UniProtKB/TrEMBL annotation:
Belongs to the krueppel C2H2-type zinc-finger protein family. GO terms for biological process: embryonic morphogenesis; negative regulation of transcription by RNA polymerase II; positive regulation of DNA-templated transcription. GO terms for cellular component: chromosome; nucleus. Residues 38-65, 66-93, 94-121, 122-149, 150-177, 178-205, 206-233, 234-261, 262-289, 290-317, 318-345, 346-373, 374-398 form the C2H2-type domain. SUPFAM superfamilies: beta-beta-alpha zinc fingers. May be involved in transcriptional regulation. It is found in: Nucleus. This is C2H2-type domain-containing protein. The lineage of its organism: Eukaryota, Metazoa, Ecdysozoa, Arthropoda, Chelicerata. Keywords: DNA-binding, Metal-binding, Nucleus, Repeat, Transcription, Transcription regulation, Zinc, Zinc-finger.
Length: 398
């Protein structure tokens, strides 16, 4: 069949099934008014040209006659092989006009452009989630159908995407084909390499709509957003304390088991997790690698720097549900809340006087110890409280 058959509704009443002489492909030719197309009899996909249908039909026959000389992966189309070869040569001929990011495949560029336009014309009929590409929607639909057609021959784990299976196989082979040009660290997945590169460039493309804090990774933004929603989906089975991150729950569970797998070589202090040990070691080295861009004050922990920055930005993300007063730290909010509850959990063993904050109890105990840790630089008089020392200074300054 060498010509495209045009339908006007007068010559043919029904769709016809035609077998092409050169491909033995069953072609369903439309007889709808003012339409012309070739449809695959197997999956129903429609094409404007016969040559496109012939290419498509190879996917059903699983005919893959083009092989990669590097990794021996086979393809049904020469164009797909040529695009694949760029993964070995690191050639990226397609670039984004907006951010100049480069891609080896045009399809990946089109997918990337959706980040700038945020256009999502394809939506799921089940959960109404939007997608920028129809292919992504088709993959997503397998979440609802629980369709997993790709099986690992080593551990028999099943996957809904072939690409996920290929990535999974690297857990068995320990293959890490992607390396960082800066620190030469290797990664199993290209996406992990891209994320890692942001640690060198300090790129933070994701920002919070509420407090405008920026993040290098979207998953960290998603976790951060739980601070505003007060969402804590992970809870401890022992004490029922809630956590916004599963990693924090796992670390917390060590409190109940009293397990300290990491210990300091200098003072033998034990820690629940390695990050805690690394932070502790800076006590001995007096290392303060985190510097404030405003006042250049150094901090041993990034969390301390983030808290300090709120002094300059005047950010107060924690607010009281009762009086709506805002605070820069959650601990300050917790202390303030005792004003409303009249709770005084800290009591003196000597006189049994109660206090709402632990620091007030410590100040009170100085009455019994007669300790005066604050002294005047001028006359060397000692005081039990810093506020008393500040009042005393007025004698000298007046």
């Amino acid at each position: 069949m060498e010509t495209i058959i045009k339908k006007n509704g007068a010559n043919l009443k029904n769709d016809q099934l035609v077998e092409t002489a050169d491909t033995d492909i069953n072609v369903k030719i439309s007889t709808d008014k003012n339409e012309k197309y070739f449809a695959c009899d197997i999956c129903g996909q429609k094409f404007d040209e016969k040559r496109l249908l012939k290419k498509h039909f190879d996917t059903h026959r699983k005919l893959k006659q083009y092989s990669c000389d590097v990794c021996h992966k086979v393809f049904s189309r020469e164009g797909n092989l040529n695009q694949h070869l760029w993964t070995h040569t690191n050639e990226e001929p397609y670039s984004c006009d907006l951010c100049h990011k480069c891609f080896s495949l045009k399809g990946n560029l089109n997918k990337h452009l959706g980040l700038h336009t945020n256009e999502k014309p394809f939506s799921c009929n089940v959960c109404h989630k939007g997608f920028s590409l129809k292919g992504d929607l088709n993959w997503h639909l397998r979440v609802h159908s629980n369709e997993k057609t790709f099986i690992c021959y080593l551990c028999h784990k099943v996957f809904s995407r072939k690409s996920n299976l290929f990535q999974h196989l690297r857990t068995h082979t320990n293959e890490k084909p992607y390396s960082c040009d800066v620190c030469h660290k290797f990664f199993s997945y290209k996406s992990n390499l891209f994320q890692h590169l942001r640690t060198h460039t300090n790129e933070k493309p994701y920002s919070c709509d509420i407090c405008h804090k920026r993040f290098s990774f979207k998953n960290i933004l998603d976790v951060h957003f739980r601070v505003h929603l007060k969402e804590k989906p992970y809870s401890c089975d022992v004490c029922h304390k809630g956590f916004s991150q599963k990693a924090n729950l796992n670390q917390h569970l060590l409190v109940h088991t009293n397990e300290n797998p990491f210990s300091c070589d200098m003072c033998n202090k034990g820690f629940f997790y390695k990050a805690g040990l690394n932070r502790h070691l800076r006590v001995h080295t007096n290392e303060k690698p985190f510097i404030c861009n405003f006042c250049h004050k150094g901090f041993s922990q990034k969390g301390y720097l983030n808290l300090h920055l709120r002094i300059h930005t005047n950010e107060k993300p924690f607010s009281c549900d009762v009086c709506h007063k805002s605070f820069s730290r959650k601990s300050y909010l917790n202390q303030h809340f005792q004003v409303h509850t009249k709770e005084k959990p800290f009591s003196c063993d000597m006189c049994h006087k109660s206090f709402s904050q632990k620091i007030h109890l410590k100040q009170h105990l100085l009455i019994y110890t007669n300790e005066k840790p604050f002294s005047c630089d001028v006359c060397h008089k000692g005081f039990s409280r810093k506020s008393s020392l500040n009042r005393h200074y007025r004698i000298h300054t007046n």
